[in-house]
Write a structure and sequence with these properties.
Alpha-Beta Plaits, alpha+beta, 8 helices, transmembrane, 2 domains, 6 strands
Length: 229
């Protein structure tokens, strides 16, 4: 096996390993793009960069040397632009919560790592792989121990003949340690149901649990929805 083939094997192998490690962390936490996706993205990026940097080899004698122009940066730009569509596919919004942003970012950086491995820039590629794994795993623990503010999308529905006054609703929310950030009103079911739609803020997630228990015991509320962001 020639030295050039060994170099290509190392570049593709390290790209596959780096993508697999990042994807393994994503799969472990049940994310939509996991082990196989990240491995394939990294290897594909490395492969495309190899195609660009070894253009003279695969063109061979079909063209004169003067006609062969290599610009790996254009290939890298195309890869990073195209990977944005794949990353966008794992992002979705549900209520106040946006899911998939971290997974999309991990796909994007995995593609960038594939580019580095593909051109043989192994030292920074290995460093960034380690940094990425630390960010995805250790920073998750750090985030879990930081003080947070919790938000919830809250809807209360009343039959039109027994609607609680807004002041009573606000007092009930405040009594459970929550703050109403926004409130809107809606008349539904041809005037039979009146709804308060709110965005709540609290410093303790248990306050939302207690609020839900209190709403469940109410005799005037027809139905409610409390979706934590």
């Amino acid at each position: 096996m020639s030295e050039g083939m060994v170099s290509i094997l190392i570049n593709l192998g390290t790209a596959w390993l780096a993508g697999s490690l990042i994807g393994l962390e994503r799969s472990y936490h049940g994310r939509p793009a996991g082990f196989r996706t990240h491995a394939l993205v990294c290897v594909a990026s490395a492969l495309l960069m190899l195609v660009s940097t070894h253009q003279a080899e695969w063109v061979g004698g079909m063209l004169p040397d003067s006609a062969i122009q290599t610009d790996p940066t254009r290939m890298a730009q195309g890869i990073m632009t195209g990977i944005g569509f794949l990353g966008a596919g794992v992002i979705f919004k549900e209520g106040l919560t946006v899911h998939g942003l971290t997974t999309a970012a991990s796909i994007w950086i995995t593609s960038a790592l594939g580019i580095l491995f593909g051109i043989g820039f192994l030292y920074p590629a290995v460093i960034v792989t380690v940094v990425t794994l630390i960010t995805l795993s250790l920073f998750r623990w750090v985030e879990g121990h930081l003080p947070n503010e919790f938000y919830a999308d809250h809807v209360i529905s009343y039959p039109i003949e027994s609607v609680d006054d807004e002041s009573e609703v606000r007092e009930m929310i405040a009594r459970h340690g929550c703050v109403i950030k926004t409130m809107s009103y809606r008349l539904a079911e041809r005037g039979k149901i009146y709804r308060y739609h709110m965005v709540l803020q609290t410093h303790d997630k248990d306050n939302l649990v207690k609020l839900a228990a209190s709403l469940r015991e109410s005799r005037t509320i027809l139905e409610f929805r409390l979706a934590v962001a």
